[in-house]
Amino acid sequence: MSFVVGPFVALCDICQKPCLATVHGSYLEPDDENGPERYLRLASCQECGRGILLTQGVEETMDSRELTPPAVAWPDTTGSVGARVPAPLRREYEQARTCYQARAYTAVAVMVRRTLEGVCAEEGVKRRTLRQSLDTLQEDGKIDKRLVEWAAELRVLGNEGAHYTGSQVSPEDARDALNLAQAFLDYMYTFSTQFEEFKSRRAKRHRKES
Ligand SMILES: [Zn+2]
Prior knowledge:
It is a single chain. This protein is α+β, with helices and mostly antiparallel strands. It has two domains: about 10-75, no CATH class; about 85-205, Four Helix Bundle (Hemerythrin (Met), subunit A) (Up-down Bundle). About 45% of the residues lie in helices and about 20% in strands. It has six helices and six strands. Strands 1, 2, 3, 4, 5 and 6 form a six-stranded antiparallel β-sheet that branches. Helix 1 (about 85-100) packs antiparallel against helix 6, helix 2 (about 105-120) runs parallel beside helix 6 and helix 3 runs antiparallel to helix 4 (about 145-155). The termini are far apart. The mean pLDDT is about 85. It binds zinc ion. Zinc ion binds near residues 14, 45 and 47.
């Protein structure tokens, strides 16, 4: 088995593409009741410098030990939002996720509502109700109509979740609210930004060609 380490190719969450990762240190986790032997490698993206934790399994055959291709263990990109989401909004959303993991479902609804209010505030939209603010975002062409419909359908984001009613938010409704918040942030800050960047690259290319 080779102990020469890296650089590895890893999918960087910030760069949103496979990048070379420099390895700064490795730890071989022993094979025990917690799982099979594997390497944990602290690395950094050569493009943007962000830290990455890679895991690499060890596969034993009759006469050799092979390392499996490295996988990104952290940052956890499942359910988390892109790095382009403004930090204050990411904090709100991360709290919503934490509440969900802690099964505090009513608190999830409150945090998701705060996240959506935060998006409106970041975009300079402040109307009397959340619904009106979301409508304005849509009229300005900043979000998709389906996201506004989705938000309107989630009653837990309205009075049911935000104010004391004596009833609790169900796990399903909390999950729906969390999914909406994720889709919302990704649309606003990942999809839209990447699309704008694509358009400006294309325009530049056209100018060069003409
Ligand atoms: Zn990167």
